[in-house]
Amino acid sequence: MNKSKLLNIINKVYPLISEDYSCNAKVEIHYNIYERLSGVKGMSGTACAQAEYDWNENKIYIYSSKMIGEEDILRSLIHECVHSNQCKVKFNAYYLCGYTYETHPYEVEARDEEKKWEKYKQNTISIG
Asked: What are the structural domains, with CATH classification, of the chain?
């Protein structure tokens, strides 16, 4: 998805999602995590999330290379807003205790909330 359309969708739906989830994180768009972390355009790697929440910066990073359609954007914003309300210490502790992405209680909660993405879909219809 091109960055302009991605930005239009985020600008339209993020205020609604952030209000529903009491999330005040700033949203930034990057092509992928490798470009964001290295600062090198065209940098790539083998794995890249769709989005990421940074507790230290209170930012949601959306990775445009992984955004295929509106559903991906809406699910990612919801997922990361859920993380913004979770405890970073507990989040990290669950992984240290051996939980995987699939079983981590905070990830399970965020994925469950993603299922509500269609509530916001109507707000993306007019975006071309």
From this structure: 3-121 (3.30.2010)
pLDDT in tens, 68-81: 999 999 999 999 99
Please report, to the nearest 10 degrees, the dihedral formed by the alpha carbons of residues 86, 90, 91, 92 taken in order: 150
Tell me how many degrees the CA angle 46-109-16 measures, rounded to the nearest 5.
90
28 forms beta bridges with: 61
* Locus of tokens 């964001």: 36
On whether the pTM is more than 0.85, the answer is yes
What span, in angstroms and rounded, lies between the C-alpha atoms of 35 and 33? 6
Supply 12's token pair. Answer: 């339209």
Which string of b and e fits 85-122 if b means at least 16 CB within 10 Å? ebeeeebeebeeeebeeeebebbeebbebbeebeebee
